[in-house]
Amino acid sequence: MRLLHRNSHGDLTFTDDLHDGIPAYAILSHTWGKDEEEVTFRDMKDGSGRGKKGYKKIKFCGEQAARDGLQYFWVDTCCIDKTNNVELTSAINSMYRWYHGAARCYVYLADVHADQPGESSTWEEAFRKSRWFTRGWTLQELIAPRSVEFFSVEGDWLGYKTSLEPLIHNVTKIPVQALRGSLSEFSVEERITWVDMRITKHGEDMAYCLLGIVNVSLAVIYGEGKAKAIARLKRELALQSHISVNEVEARQYRVPFSLKGVPVINKFVNRKEELTALREHLLPAREQGRRKVTVLHGLGGIGKTQLSVEFCRRHADTFTAVFWLDGRSEDTLKQSLAAIAARLPMGQLPEASVNRKLTSEEDVDATVNDVLIWLSIPANSSWLLVFDNVDIDINDPKAPPGAYDVQRFYPDADHGSILVTTRLSSLAQLGAPIKVANVNRKQALAIFRNGYKYFRESPESDQLLEKLDGLPLALAQAAAYMSETQCSFTEYIELYDIEWNTWMNTNGDQKPVQAAICERDKDAANLLLLWSWLDYQDLWFELFAPAHLRLTSADEVVAEWFMLVTNSKPKFMEKTRLLLRYSLIDRVKNSGGYIIHPVMHEWAWQIQDKYQRGQNCQLAAMVLGLAVPLESEKGFWVLQLRLLLHANRYLKCLEISDGISDRRSRIGVGTTALDGFHGLGNLYCMQGKLAEAEKMYQRALEGKEKAWGPDHTSTLSTVNNLGNLYKNQGKLAEAEKMYQRALEGKEKAWGPDHTSTLHTVNNLGLLYADQGKLAEAEKIYQRALEGYEKAWGPDHTSTLSTVNNLGNLYADQGKLAEAEKMYQRALEGKEKAWGPDHTSTLDTVNNLGNLYADQGKLVEAEKIYQRALEGYEKAWGPDHTSTLSTVNNLGNLYKNQGKLAEAEKMYQRALEGKEKAWGPDHTSTLSTGKLAEAEKMYQRALEGYEKAWGPDHTSTLDTVNNLGLLYADQGKLAEAEKMYQRALEGKEKAWGPNHTSILDTVNNLGNLYADQGKLAEAEKMFQRALEGKEKAWGPDHASTLNTVNNLGNLYKDQGKLAEAEKMYQRALERKEKVWAPDHTSTLDTVNNLGLLYADQGKLAEAEKMYQRALEGYDKAWGPDHISTLDTVNNLGNLYADQGKLAEAEKMYQRVLEGYEKALSPDGVKTFVPALNNAYSYGMLFERQGRSSDAITMYIRALRGYGIVFGTEYYWYQAAYKRIHNLESL
Fold it and tell me: Does the keyword RNA-binding apply (predicted)?
C-alpha cells in the first residue's frame, strides 16, 4: 500500500510500497470526474498534478487528515500506478481491506453545497440525489470503513455515517446492520443485490467492486466485458461454497422467508405421509426441470392450510423464495401477487413497478404482470407459490359470480413449484393430487393433548375421539373448550350432541358454545355473530373506526355492546382474547388481524335469531359502507380490495336473509345504515361491479326516501350516483331520469350555482353527448362552465375538465376549429395547474391527437400521440391501460397513413398489453383492432361484450355493427344485413330513432342495400340518415357530408348521373369550405367525381379529378398510402379506357408495388383492392397480347377472391373463365 505523507509545510510525498507497519491513515471516497481532470500517480511524481481540477480533492483530504492528527492519507486516483497491471490487480483485490483499515474515511461530495448562514437547510435534498450514491465503487467505501464522515464541495462537514444513518438507509435501502459493517448476517446473494442500482465507468468494475463485499479475489482483466467478469465472479463463489454456477445464479433471487398474513399454529401434529408426498412432488431438483404442481384437497377443517404452512417452514431454505397467496377470490389473489413486488431484491423489477402505489386496478394488474415475469426468469427456477383456499371452480355451471381460473396466474415459464389447497376434488386435476384425510387415532390424541393438558385416556375420551372422527379443527376446539371451562369428557359429549341437533334443526333454541361464551363475555359473543356477516378472514380493529366515529355523533339508538367493543383497540383485543382461548379464531401473523375458520363462521351465521340478524345486518352495512375510502385518499385501492371480500359476503347474507324494513324501527339502528348501503354502492361501482352497485344504491334510495323524503340532499346524492351507474350500464333513459331528478332537487335545496348542482349539470352534459343530443349537451356544458368559472375561477381543474368536455362535443359536432380552441385552453390550464407530464394533461394531449387525426393533420397527430405515449409510459409504465389506449390510437393513425405494418405492430402491442392487464374478455381488450383475422376478433369481441354487458348494451351493438361492416367487405351480404338490423333495433330501443349512432347504422344499411342491388331500399336508408344528420349536426357536418357522398354513389349506380353529380358537387363544395381543398375527405369526393365523369364518358374531366386527388393524397398521406394507390388504380383504369396502355401499365405496376410494400406478404394476398388491381392488370396484359403475364395476374386475383369470398363470387368466376380461355388458346 502506497500512502501520501503531508509534512508540516503542506508538502506531499509518497511513502514506499508498505506491507507491514502501516501507520494510521485517512482515506478519501469521492466520484471521479473526466480522466484528464484527475491527478494520476505519474502526475504526482513529476509535479504536474497541482494544475488539475482533481487536485482540490487531494489537498482537501490531506488538510482534513492533518486536522484530525493524521500525517498519512490515501487517494485512489494517485496512490495506485495504474500502468502496472500487477499493482492494479493487487490494489483492486485489497481495496475493501484498505478502506476497512483506515482511521478516517472522508466522503467528498462534489455535487452537494453546504447551507449558507441564514438560509434554510437545503443540503439534505442534494445529499439524497448525490451522484456518489449511484457509483459501484462507493458501495464498499460506505460499508467497509469504521468511521465515515461526509463533506460538502466546500469542505464543510455534514455528518458521520452514524448520525446520517436513517438518511443513508432511506437513499440506499441497504440494511442498517450492513451499514454498520456487520456483513455476516447477510447472504452473499443479498449483498450482491446492493449494487444493482449502481453503475461503473468500466463494465468489468461491476464485478470487481464487489470483491471485498463477497470476500473473494479475482484477476483483473479490463477488456473482457461485464458479462465475463461477473461470470468469473460467480464461478469463484461457486468454487468456494462447493455449489453449481446455476445455484449461484439462483441465489440472487433469494427472498427472506415470511408467513406474514398467514394463520399459523405453534404446535403442529406431524402428518408424515402427506409431508413426504409434498416433499417428493414439490422440492426443486438440483438441475432445472419442469414446473411441479401439487393440489392438496379435502374437507374444510381437515388441516390443508396448516399442513402447507408446516411444509413451507421445514423446507424454506430449499427454495429461493416462498410466497403465500390468498386464493379466495381473483381480487385477493392479485393483491397477494402484487404485494410480492415489495419483497423482491432491489433492481430485479422495473422501477415503475417498485414505486407503483397500487391505487387502481390497472396498477395492481401491471404489478402482478411484472411479478409473473420475474418468476419466469430462466435462472429463477427454485421458488414455491402456495395458492391457498382456491374453493371455486370456474368450470362448475353453478359457480358463483367472481369465479376465476387459477391457472391464469401461473408464471409462463415451465419451472418452479406450485401448491394449491382446495376443498374441491374437481380441482385435483390441476396437478399431482394429494387428498388430506382425517387424522388417525395417534394424531388425534396428539392434537387433543396439545390443547388440553389434563387429558387422560378413558372410555369417555375414546367415545369423544370417535365422535370427532379425526377432524383437526373439531379436535382443537374441543380441547380448547374443555381447557377453558374445565368440563369433563361426558359433559362435552352431551354438549356436542345438543350442538349437533341444533345444526340439524335450525329452529332449535339451544346454542351451547354461544351460551358458554355468553356466560364469560356477552360482548365477545355478539362480535362473533356480527363477524358472520363479514368475510371470515382479515378482520381488524381499524375496520370499525369510521362506523364508531359516525355513531358517536349520530342521534340514534345503537347497540351498546358495539360501541363498547369498538371504542378502543385494547377493548377490542380484550374481547378477541376470549375467542382465541376457545380456539374459535386465530391471529393472522404480522398483520394485526384475525381469521375464523369457515366452518365456525357459517355456524355463527346459522345460530342467529331474527332479531340478531336484523341488528347485525344493519351494523355490518355501517361498518363496511362507512369504511369505503375516497379515490383521492392515499392507498384507496388496497383498502377497497380488502373491503370487497367483506362486501361480497355481506351481499350474500343480505340476499338470503329476510327483509329488513320492519327491523329498522324495532332495533333503532336507523338512518346511518342507509349511508352504509350508499357507501357499498360506491365500492361496487368503483370496482366495476355494476349489478351489485345497483342493488346497494336502490336499497339506500328506498330507505332514504322513506326516512328523509325524496328531496333530501343525501337522497339526491344517491339519485345522482344511480344516474352515473345507469349511464355506465348503457341505460341512458333511466340515467337521464335520475340526473333530472337530482338536478331539480339540488337546485331547490342548494341553488343553481352550487358546485354539487354543477356536478350534476356536467353529468347531464356527458349523458346528452352519449345520446347524440349535441345541442342540449352544449347548453348544459356552457351552463356548467359558467358556473365553475364563477365559483372556482377559469383555471380550476373542474373548470378545465368541462372545457375539455366541450372540446369533445365540438369535435363530435364537426366544429373542429372550436374543438381545437377548447383543447388548447384545457391543455394550457392543465400544464399550468398540474405540469406537462400529469396524466390529466396527457389526456387532453391525447384528445388533441384525435382532433388532428380527424382534421387530416396526420403529422401533427403523430407528434401529439408520441408525446402522450412517452408521458403515459413515464407516468404509468408501458402496460398501463391509458398507455395502451394511446398505442391503439397510434395504430389507427398508422392505418390511416397506409403504414399497415406499423399499424399492426401497434395493434398487437395494445392487444397483448390489454390481455395482460385486463384479461381476454375485458371490454377494452375487445375494442382493440387487428388487421388479420378480423372476423374472429369481432366474434370474440361480441361474445365478450354479451357476457360482460348483455346483448342490448350499446357497446355490444357497436360490435354487432362492426361485424356487419366486415361481412359486407367479405361479400357476405345476408349475414351483414342481419347484423345491421340487430344493431339498428337494439339502438332504437336504447336511444330512440334519431340518435346519431343509429343514423350511422342506417347509413351502413343503405350501403348494404346498394351492394345487394336493392337501390330503392338503399335510397330510403340514405335519405333517412341524411335528414337525421342534418337535423342533429347540420348540413356541413362530416358525417352528413359522408351520407351526401353515399347518395351520390347510389344515384351513380342507379344511372341517375345528373343527380349523382349534384350530390358529389354539394359534398365537394361543403368539404372544401369546412375542411379545405386538400383535406383527405375532400379528396375522397374528388375521386368519386372522377369515377362519375369516367362513367359519363367525360374522360378529360375525369383525368383532372384523378390528378387532383392523386396530388392531394401524395401530399397528405404519401405515395404508398392505400387511398393514394386506389386513385392511382383509377387513373390506370382511365388510361386503359383511353387506350393509353403504356401509361396504364405504369399506374398498375405502381399500385402493385405499393400494396406489396404497405401490406405483409400474406396480407396482400387477401386485400380486395389489391385483388381488383391484379384483375385489371391481367386485362391490360391480355389486351397487349401478353397471355402468360395475364394468366399470372388472373391467378393471383382468383386465389385471393376464393379465400375472401369463396368460389361462387362473381369476380372469382370471371377470373376463372379468363384463365381458361387464355390457356385454351
Answer: no
Cα 975 from Cα 968, distance rounded (Å): 8
Bridge-based pairing state of the strands 72-74 and 4-6? antiparallel
Query: CA-CA-CA-CA torsion for 840, 846, 851, 855, nearest 10 degrees?
Result: 160
Which of 608-617, 639-648, 979-988, 1187-1196 shows the lowest per-residue confidence on average (mean pLDDT)?
A: 979-988
Which set of grid coordinates corresponds to residue 730?
348503457
Name the burial class of residue 706, with classes exposed (0-12), middle (13-18) and buried (19+) by CB atoms within 10 angstroms of its CB. Answer: middle
Closest by CA position to 264, among listed 388, 422, 392, 410: 388
- Taking only the tens place, the pLDDT of each residue in 253-270 is 888 888 777 766 655 566
Output the CA torsion sign for 385, 390, 396, 397.
negative
Question: CB 1103: neighbour CB atoms within 10 A?
Answer: 19
| Cell numbers linked to 898 | 397506409
CA–CA dist 907, 897 (Å, integer): 15
Per-position b or e across 131-148, b if 16+ CB within 10 A of its CB: ebbebbbbbbbbbbbeeb
For the record, the C-alpha cell of 429 comes out as 386435476
Cell representation of residue 1041: 357530408
Asked if 576 contacts 524 with a C-beta cutoff of 8 angstroms, the reply is: yes
The residue written with cell numbers 446455476 in the block is: 246
* Higher-pLDDT residue of 1018, 337: 337
Cβ neighbours around 949 below 10 Å, total: 18
Q: How many angstroms separate the CA atoms of 576 and 599, rounded? A: 18
DSSP bridge partners of 28 = 106
Name residues whose C-beta falls within 8 Å of residue 571's C-beta, 6 or more positions apart in sequence.
564, 565
The pLDDT assigned to 911 comes to 63
Any idea which residue has 502501516 for its cell? 22
CA distances from 1034 to 778, 812, 850, 1007, 1028 (A): 14, 12, 22, 22, 9
Residue with cell 482533481: 54
Burial of 646: CB neighbours in 10 Å, binned 0-12, 13-18, 19+: buried
> 594-605: per-residue pLDDT in tens?
888 766 787 788
949 band by pLDDT with thresholds 50, 70 and 90: low
Longest dimension (CA), the chain: 115
Helical H runs in 672-795? 672-686, 690-707, 713-729, 732-749, 755-771, 774-792
d(C-alpha 285, C-alpha 428), whole Å:
23
The SS3 of residue 384 is: strand
CA distance 503 to 511: 10
Q: What confidence score (pLDDT) does residue 954 get?
A: 61
Other beta carbons within 10 Å of 1216 = 17
Residue 581: count other Cβ atoms within 10 Å of its Cβ.
16
Q: In this structure, are residues 315 and 321 in contact, taking their beta carbons and an 8 Å threshold?
A: no
Instruction: Report the alpha-carbon distance of residue 424 to residue 442 in Å, rounded.
Output: 27
Residues 889 and 849 sit within 8 Å (Cβ to Cβ)? yes
Kindly provide the b/e burial profile for residues 198-217, where b requires at least 16 CB atoms within 10 angstroms of the residue's own CB.
Answer: bebeebbbbbbbbbbbbebe
CA nearest 980: which of 992, 968, 996?
968
Q: What is the rounded CA–CA span in Å between residue 587 and residue 992?
A: 58
Q: Residue 1163 is placed in which grid cell?
A: 396480407
